[in-house]
Structures are given as C-alpha cells and as structure tokens.
Design a protein that fits this description.
It contains 6 helices and no strands. By secondary structure, the protein is mainly alpha-helical. It is elongated and about 65 Å long.
Length: 174
C-alpha cells in the first residue's frame, strides 16, 4: 500500500514537470525573478548618481514591478494547474487565486503611479523627458499615450493565455 502511494506521488510530480503549461509558468516565474533581481541590484548600484535611466530602466520605468508581476503570474498559473489537478487541494479556489493576481496587478499599477508622482516632483523635467521616452511596465515602443492601459491589457492577456493552457492540461511533452 505505501509503495502505491509513492508511485502515484511520483507520477503526479513527473506529470507536472512534463506539462507544457507548468513549463511555461516556470519560465515566466524565472524570467520575472531574474528581471526583479537584476533591477534591484542595478538600482542600488546607480542610485547615488540621480535618476537611473540605464540597464533595465532604459526600456521600462518600473522593471522591478514588471519582474514581480511576471514572477507572481507564473506562480499563479502553476497554482491554477495544481488546483485543477488535485481536485482543488488548496486554500483558495482556482478563480479566487487568479482574481487575487488581478488585484495585485491593480495594486502594482497604483504603486507605480504614486512613484511616478514622487519622481516627477523630485527630478522635474528630467523625469518627464524620461517618462516620455520609456514605457510604463511592458516595453511597448512609442505608445506612451496609452502606455498604462496597454501594459495592463498585455499582462492580463499573458495571464489569460497561461490559464487557458493550464485548463487544457492534457498537453504534455511525452
């Protein structure tokens, strides 16, 4: 009897690592973690020189938030897969887990807007010039007028896409 339980656990773990959805969720999580750590280290090293506009800040104004959002997006997608494949073994439902990530997205956008207000007061025209030439959370090019809405929309589409892949769940590499 104990050996059959271990076999089922081993099969579940193997299945989770062979799932395309779990692989994508893990890649998004690691990419987000890498971006967040790189942004934090870069900011700490260059902060004394004034407004940091190099490194990841050359492409997006809030790379730390982007990293955290991507990291938690991947983790949320993995939790969705977990809840789907363990008959809901968790504290929240699948829907509540995803909804919580969208609440977090709203909070990070709000924090970024507060930070931008502070930075525009502290650095004045230098920050406004930087803001006009750099994307909000996702590098979008020259869509500054709709930057915030496009960032929210693209992050939402990434989440929805990963959730759809997790819902299909039967696609594996084997």
């Amino acid at each position: 009897f104990p050996l059959s339980i271990l076999g089922v656990i081993f099969e579940f773990i193997t299945m989770s690592f062979m799932s395309i959805g779990v692989l994508l969720a893990n890649l998004v999580t690691l990419a987000g973690l890498g971006l967040a750590l790189y942004s934090i280290i870069h900011l700490q090293r260059h902060r004394k020189a004034g407004l940091v506009t190099t490194g990841p800040y050359r492409f997006i104004r809030h790379p730390q938030y982007t990293g955290f959002l991507l990291m938690t997006l991947g983790l949320t997608a993995f939790c969705y897969w977990w809840l789907s494949n363990t008959f809901g073994m968790g504290w929240l439902s699948k829907e509540a887990t995803v909804a919580l990530w969208f609440v977090q997205l709203g909070i990070y956008v709000g924090l970024a807007l507060l930070e931008e207000s502070h930075l525009s007061k502290e650095f004045g025209n230098q920050y406004l010039t930087y803001k006009g030439s750099t994307s909000f959370i996702i590098p979008l090019g020259r869509f500054n007028r709709f930057d915030i809405l496009l960032s929210i929309g693209l992050m939402s589409l990434i989440m929805i896409g990963l959730i759809l892949i997790q819902s299909w769940g039967t696609f594996t590499f084997v």
